[in-house]
């Protein structure tokens, strides 16, 4: 029966895509309608299902009912203008199939095929289940992040966590943007495995994102080739880390580290030919068996090719592990495409502006950084393309978003004691290696941060940091901004500036340059406890960079003497990511490969979680040791007093005394009689029903290596479940 439910859900997705693609009553290409329809159906359908589940619980009926309501609602709106909608689809297909569109048609087909194959392969390796039941992650970043997503999804699907409470911090509302994981939970309810439930929508949205970048570039006048380049940059763009493989090849050939450094290379000109020859001789072998990650991802600072590498290959740093950004970015691209068409449409197209507002209003439930970035970008675009519809987008966004924003605004934002208060000011972001002072955000510190950012712009260290991390990206933005400003002047300077800006379509400049404002804001304000999380904003700036870079490369490629410059620009951005991708190929030695497997849950852990889920109440609270991949919260969907500290800290959790209380409870009272032991009083205080004691005290994330293993075993408590390493005690009657 599970396959039947999933088949019905797939059918509703297809019908919803067709209906939602008909909603924008503006001129859109057929591929844009398909992609926008898919994104709208996934995002809005998830939200409608969530509301229905709040009222009637999460079940097969509410999951399919939510999708059906979405399709009926969208279809009802479309039905009123069915003749115009059918004409839009018919005209779109006729235009796509016309002889003059052959090149675009073939290019889109090839891009769609390659993208589908790529993401199908990648996401099929995100999580897998071995023959013995072991759950493995295919990538280390997926192992690190998807444990949290599994935890949230399981809390809905298995733990019936509605209204949502934080499964990692009992008694607190779930403040993390949970809608993507809720949507995966709905697939679990329909019968999908947790691995498929997380991977399938991720792959679908990754495909939509890639193709929406391509179609956005076409809409803005840059062309299909520029769009493909922009999509590739967004997926694998990086900096100059690839230079590390030259040094490694040089050393591998037998030269000293000093000879292989840039300073040593130029200091001994007589040796230059032999150094180059030796490096090139060993380079192919080094590429095939790369000894380290040249983008610096998950690499100790001492082993990174360049100092202070903070920008990693997006595919492995964001698109695969961070599920929320897939949903947010897909929604943002759908909004940009619709509004770029509606703002210049001959008819008013107010319903298109309203639909964009619905998608933006859902972002506090999906990805709050998307809402911040789009508020900046769309505000600046609206100043250039005047239209009354912008007010409709703003009004609908506020109405849809305000309930969630109000709940987030009234919650904790970390604490000074834990060092995770936010938002803060950090001029220049992490160009000082994260060692700069971070002040709480106030009007005064905001001004100071702006001044500090201007000082950073005058610092060679700042420019060196960004060039090392992102290649030509920041200099390109600076040159284009200066050229746009200088183009208003008369004389030689203005003429030169206008020649430079002429390399870019006007519409592309109007859309891409506002993303540079996101870069500026993220260089001043840190919006989460962990300053590295500002990369979720820089991702949007990078979209603007990718569009500019794609357009410039295509323009220069038309002239043979500029192709060298175009290739050089592309190399500074794409070579490092290309090297990282090559580590996926089968000839890479297992020790050097990007892929796993990395064990997320052993077969023993899976069996333990199954027993716990069957023998404890869904809302039971567990005292756990804080491992990120704890099976009781990750698979059984139960709630922990305090889960993995690193996640909670980065979310700005105010721990109060809970951290120390958890340690005290885990350690027990080995030196006191039970009547004087405070542990049981604290268990009652936190409403703990069960205690999980795991003897793997050196595992990642364990909050206390002094857990009282013998003390807990000697308390005579009922055992609910056990495995080779874990014992779960029932403390409800203690």
Layout of secondary structure:
Elements: H1 2-21, H2 30-56, H3 60-79, H4 82-96, H5 102-124, E1 127-129, E2 135-139, H6 140-157, H7 179-190, H8 194-219, H9 224-236, H10 243-253, H11 257-260, H12 262-267, H13 272-288, H14 314-319, H15 323-342, H16 350-361, H17 363-366, H18 368-384, H19 389-409, E3 424-425, E4 439-440, H20 443-457, H21 460-470, H22 473-486, H23 491-501, H24 506-512, H25 514-522, E5 525-526, H26 535-557, H27 563-582, E6 595-601, H28 603-615, E7 621-623, H29 631-634, E8 639-640, H30 645-650, H31 658-667, H32 679-685, E9 690-694, H33 709-713, E10 719-722, E11 726-730
Parallel strand pairs: 7-8, 7-9
Antiparallel strand pairs: 1-2, 2-6, 3-4, 3-5, 9-11, 10-11
Helix pairs in contact: 1-2, 1-3, 2-3, 2-7, 2-8, 2-15, 5-8, 6-7, 7-8, 8-9, 8-15, 9-26, 9-27, 10-13, 15-16, 15-18, 16-19, 18-25, 22-23, 22-26, 24-26, 25-26, 26-27, 31-32
Transmembrane segments: 36-58, 106-124, 195-217, 224-247, 324-343, 355-383, 464-487, 508-527, 539-557, 564-585
Keywords: Membrane, Transmembrane, Transmembrane helix
Keywords:
3-stranded antiparallel β-sheet; transmembrane helix; transmembrane; membrane
Tell me the radius of gyration: 27 Å
Structural class: mainly alpha
Q: How many individual β-strands?
A: 11
Characterize the biggest β-sheet. Answer: 5 strands, mixed
Rounded average pLDDT: 94
- Ends distance: 43 Å
Number of helices: 33
Query: Are there runs of 5+ residues with pLDDT below 50, and where?
Result: none
Question: Strands of the largest sheet, in order across it?
Answer: 8-7-9-11-10
**Shape summary:** globular
- Beta content comes to 5-15%
Helix content: 55-70%
Keywords: Membrane, Transmembrane, Transmembrane helix
